[in-house]
């Protein structure tokens, strides 16, 4: 992508109406745009990052047998009344609106009810189970406050998978596989070392649910971590009884603030009871389907990654989700322009994604933008460098600069 | 994809609450699910078709210089009041809802206002123009009636691109390029021969807008076509004056019903006036940006393609948007299962997408599903065929069947 063809611009001024670092940096770098509190548009570079995160999550969901679908934003009142969750007393984040043809509909904050209803058309026998539909969807939550940038949205991008199993045993096997799949997602996004499977309060069908919490000073949750066992406990269930249950002692636990970056939950037959999702078992008996839900928000992940991987110069994207691998800076006259053009074409032909700063701008401005946007590697082509047959290669994370020959550069980037 | 891992099922019974053929067929084949009138979920195979159509549109938008972004569903009342389109009298398809923190927001039926406002942060000089941001987004329209399946949704999947140009001349050049890009989209989707660039009513800034109309008996529009000139006129502007203006005579025009599958519109300075989107021209004067809008609905396209490419046995997808290229049917015992498994792996390794009917089901049921789902090529592996070292290859469109050797089969599919 050529910067001259990109309509966004960076800005040095910190947006006055944002208190969160992720929103400040992402807006300054031209990745997102604030429509209103908790509601952000994704600009070209931000869209690429969000797509890259989404693709990592998609691959891991497919790897455990997920079937990708796309449910609807508009929700039937009757379904949610049946489950008892239409009331604003029970679910306090509803947006509701009226149909021109009469009646009220809601904007989906989650999708247990419509998917359970949908599956009634496809599940009747034990042979139809287990199944794991999932989707990426805009979710809506009518939050009273939304000051955390991408980390708490009124409208946000969510992956939700639901498991439909024959019984608890089949469910638990998958639940554990999903916990591992989630940890693979965080590892691939560079958050592996900071993210803990965290015991949280369960429901009628399980003692615990599990959150995935990334340690961060901007977190809204307090967790207690056992580094030795690589697990954590949410403050809400941090009791002597739970510690004993998990074979942990207070002495080994470290208190941290953290951001919830995913959660998995044993729903049991809560929704299959309410909406009557049954199947005929191998022995001929009629059973309720045993369910689980599994959420990850790619937009929130983008927020926490922006918070965590940044420094005083701007963003520092991990290579696999950066909007480009290389930021190519061209400085000087016709000869350097020609060499830079050739390098741009060559890297693209090798499927190395390049953001080419082909603008007529000061070198300092180009370097500053490369840093603010957080592109992993900066390559500079200038008249002086050409004289020495070399390219300047700078690592965004370490700041280290080397002079490389053409072949050395390509070997580095391949 | 193995059918045994796919949770959807086909059904012979026509959904009683659907009058449109596209919704009936797509529901019967397990591609979509009706949440409520005009609101459909996409199941795994339907999601693939929608993604494939989306990708065709994306490639053509990128080819004309589009920058992909993603705007928000929730809309600021104040912006739409500024342009005069918040009122239900002016825009009668609004869904509106209340923020928990106070104030009303709308669900976007289109995005001129928020994008014009957004671009104020990025356009100040003639050097910033032209630019062509676009997005795929769920759009919401509070339709009184929605009986046409995917062809008229209350919630639907839309591509909208907006052009921001220096002046009318620059705008018109791009407008014509977009008309060609749209025709390339329809050609790639197999609708080229049926789709006409159609003159429709313009606005304050242009004599005409242009629709793209696909001839179909289920269309809601009436158009008049000149086959010789390969253009059409919408009934609403079908007058002697317009005919004369376009150098056409009534004699050469054929009346048809048609479905609008896209539209392009010269917005002029309507929104840049209302929201004050200006730039400094090369001569130092301050000018309003000249805008255009360009819409295509991939979900509606999926509906019209399902209507058009179907027969009494079911859907007949064009190869490039089908959810799979091959429907592999396995019949018989262990030997045929082994051969079918090997073929499945081999085709996948060659990036040929296969839906593998590995179920323990009657051959007739498998053949019927292959036809209902509309997969372009059916390949059958059976014990009898193996004895003759052959594979049965059936073309969904023509119904023609051939017996092929392994090498002939691969040559056909490559």
Topology, please?
2 copies of one chain form a homodimer.
Chain A lengths: L20 H8 L3 E5 L2 E4 L1 H20 L3 E3 L4 E3 H7 L11 E4 L5 E4 L4 H8 L13 E8 L14 E11 L2 H21 L6 E9 L2 E10 L5 E6 L4 E4 L5 H6 L7 E16 L1 H6 L2 E3 L5 E3 L1 E7 L1 H11 L1 E2 L2 E2 L10 E6 L2 H16 L4 E4 L5 H11 L3 E6 H5 L3 E5 L5 E4 L1 H8 L1
Parallel strand pairs in A: 3-7, 9-12, 19-20, 19-21
Antiparallel strand pairs in A: 1-2, 4-6, 5-6, 7-8, 8-16, 9-10, 10-13, 11-12, 11-13, 13-16, 14-15, 17-18, 21-22, 22-23
Helix pairs in contact in A: 1-8, 2-5, 2-8
- The CATH C-level class name of the largest domain in chain A: Alpha Beta
Strand content of chain A: 25-35%
Mean pLDDT score of chain A: 96
- Main sheet specs of chain A: 5 strands, mixed, barrel
CATH architecture designation of the largest domain in chain A: 2-Layer Sandwich
Tally of domains of chain A: 2
Q: Specify the helix fraction band of chain A.
A: 25-40%
* Uncertain runs of chain A: none
Beginning-to-end CA distance, first to last residue of chain A: 18 Å
At the fourth CATH level, what is the homologous superfamily of the largest domain in chain A?
Bira Bifunctional Protein, Domain 2
How many individual β-strands of chain A? 23
**Oligomeric state of the chains in view:** homodimer
Total number of helices of chain A: 12
The class by helix and strand makeup of chain A works out as alpha+beta
Gross morphology of chain A is elongated
